[in-house]
Specification:
single chain; alpha+beta; Alpha-Beta Plaits; 35% helix; elongated
Amino acid sequence: MIRDQDRKTISWLRKDGRMSLTELSRRTRIPVSTLFDRMKHHYPDVVRHSCLINFSKLGFDSRAYVLFKLQDKDSFMQYLQKHHNVNTLFRVNNGWNVMVEFIFPTMHALEAFLERLDKRFSIEDKKVHYVLEEVMRERFFTEPELIPLLYPKHLNNSSSVKST
């Protein structure tokens, strides 16, 4: 089971993934050696480093989340998992099977791709949501002082994230 102290450590890393263990130690009051051990052995599947990209600065100005309803979702998802314009792929519910985040250079290119999907797969319904502006991204779990609000006292002993 993951402890409150570990949650705060993870939150600091979520806020700044490049933070050194020395700085993390100073903020959490946990020895560097202990932090190193926890990172390596206790929650390697919880924390990973990544880079957040501003896609429009790279020439990809069209971004959309699309919900799909179809019968053969497995082959559809296998196809999308290999497609270079798919950023994120979800299995979802409430009358839909799949939700995809697509990133294309233009809206025209995205629309043309969606038309090709319609021809290739038996899509019963789809709903396209174009991203007009990204207001906030990757903020959840980034404020260590708010972690106690995410884990009310009655839930603290039954966390779904386990440490080994």
